[in-house]
Amino acid sequence: MKTYLLRRALAIIPVMLVVATVSFVLIRLAPGDPASVLAGPDATTEDLAQLRTALGMDQPLPVQLVKWYARLAQGDLGQSIFLRRPVLQAVLERLEPTLLLTLWGTLLAILIGVPAGIVSARYHNTAVDQSFMALALFGLSIPNFLLGLVMILVFGVWLGWLPVSGYVPLDEGVWLNARSLLMPAVSLGLVQSALVARITRSSMLDVLREQYILSGRAKGLSERAVVYKHALKNAIIPTLTVIGITVALLIGGAVVIETVFNIPGVGRLIISAVLRRDYPVVQGVVLLIAVTYTVINLLVDLAYLLIDPRIRYTG
Amino acid sequence: MPGGNLSPSALVAESSVAASRPAATAGSGAMPSPAGGAALRALLRRRTAVLGALIVAVNLVVAVAAPALARRDPQHLDVRVRLAAPTTTHWMGTDHFGRDVWSRVVHGARLSMIVGASVVGLSFVGGLLFGLIAGYYRRLDNPLMRIMDGLMAFPGIILAIALMASLGPSVLNVIFALGIVYVPRVARIVRGSVLVVRESPYVEAARALGGLDLRILGRHVLPNCLSPVIVQGTFIFAAAVLGEAALSFLGVGVPPQIPSWGNVLAEGRLYLQQAPWLTLFPGAAIMAGILGLNLFGDGLRDLLDPKLRGVHGAGREA
User: Fold this and answer.
1) pLDDT tens-digit map of A234-243
2) Tens digit of pLDDT for each residue in A17-71?
């Protein structure tokens, strides 16, 4: 088990190296000299020369790449051209809405998806199952930003129940904050719950076909006990994997949803950075998101160990 | 390893799980696929799959016949009818430059189909190449798959946005960016299949007969890896359509004057109150398109790759 933990943690290193390399390459893909790309359009010749020496741009590419790794290892993501502050700081300032949005979205996806999946499996091939699965397919086919737009139209414009857009920071009250995130979180979570429901259902169906479920039924356990006590424990494992994936997709989705609802989060940050050609910010945000995602996946893998005693990662 | 048949390996196919998950793709091997005619008949028996295929077909027809279906130039400006509600002349209304929304939606379908097909093509070429090499030449497996893992550590849309930032907005760049996003996903599936197929007696026999690697790969390994890849293709198609719409909606995809579903929606967002038709019509088009692809893909998957039954659908990359 210890070996597994160690191996699993070490497996992150090559992934991180690739992630760092990709973000290094991104700047080199942009048209023009990387130093002027990084320094922005207003940079003077001295600025450029300074940056070139600082980043070792006169040195061969492999050397630059190694220096880039070294900078990253120290947590230095560079300076934003337009915001005139370190990229890391800019991201941290924008983190709250994105974090809350992703959390609410994940929570909704689980709270809707898991029960829907269980019920569908329990009433397999009945009208309940079929209508849930039809809804799920519908959910998988609607882009989250479209759902967001339609919700704004219905609940914001036509009914006037909820604010059309904008974000209320947590400081100004938990309730107001939650209210401003309600529609964005539903647009994210509802779409994602479709995926969670499908996985939960199919893994539940697999488990319900197992011998021990049969013997549970044979010894006269109630259907309730069979489904919720015995089957669910095992069926939840694939669902856990999907929740790991869900978080990643929700981070990606949050970027889009923030634009729909005008939420000043990390997503808005990266999009405005793209439009302003603020490459260090694009590079830094992308890198941070990839790191977050990888860590979440590691945690999901480790959570298996806690949930399923049969899993003994050896070798 | 997770025990029994509840291993998460079934999920890995479309999932963007980073790093090495213990239950690798080796499980989702090549299923013996029914012969062509029988397969088609089995597919036709699934009503939902037929419905999906019909929707996809309608979309393709609209895409091909766009200039005939919408005679008005989608880029033609007419400020006299700015933001006009649907009428008999502009039956989906007009946008804030007075451009005909029907025209833009129909030509948007064309763009979506082109982007979808090209992304599928690109990701197949790259994914098959890397997947075959990684699965067949064991020495290259580790380095290649670590690179794929690294690329998959980025949520798809994020990587696409970052690539678009460097490449600049254009249709070709959207295709390229989305293609890069899906290459590792295809490569992973192909590699998993190859690992199973390469151990099979007929590949061994071909090797014993002194067949060249290239010939063995092309004639024996590749055809037996195709069915899960084809299934994946329908989902990648859907995800690419969504991806293009999302990128364009964010303003970092197709240049705004080119008619695309995402572009119309981006404009619609600004006029949601005055002109909801700018949102509702292209929105309905996207939904129908994706639903069709998902229905068709589900049917195809049940047929070709029963192991993944009921597990996934596309459309969560946006």
Assistant:
1) 788 778 877 7
2) 898 898 888 887 877 777 777 777 777 888 788 777 776 677 788 888 888 888 8
Written as one string, the DSSP assignment of A62-80 is HHHHHHHHHHHHTT---B-
Helix B47-64 vs helix B277-304: crossing angle, to nearest 10: 130
With contact defined as beta carbons under 8 Å apart, do B146 and B187 qualify? Answer: no
- Using alpha carbons, select from A190, A100, A92, A103 the residue that is nearest to residue A139: A190
Identify all chain B residues contacting A211, using CB atoms and an 8 Å cutoff.
Answer: none
Closest CB from B6, B159, B318 relative to A235: B6
Beta-carbon neighbour count of residue B50 at 10 Å? 15
* Chain A residue closest in CA terms to B151: A19
Find residue A86's DSSP bridge partners: A79
In tens, the pLDDT along A183-229 reads 999 999 988 899 889 888 888 888 888 888 888 888 888 888 888 77
Predicted TM-score of the model (pTM): 0.83
Nearest CB to B318 within list A144, A152, A251 = A144
Residue ranges of chain B with pLDDT lower than 70? 1-39, 43, 81, 305-318
Whether chain B has a CB inside 8 Å of the CB on A146: the answer is yes
**Which residues in chain A have Cβ-Cβ distances shorter than 8 Å to B149?**
14-15, 18
* CA-atom Rg of chain A in angstroms: 24
CB pairs under 8 A between A and B: 235
Question: Does residue A108 contact residue A190 with C-beta atoms inside 8 Å?
Answer: yes
How distant is the Cα of B154 from the closest Cα of chain A, in angstroms?
5
Contacts of A149 in chain B (CB under 8 A): 265, 268-269, 272, 279, 283
ipTM score over 0.90, yes or no: no
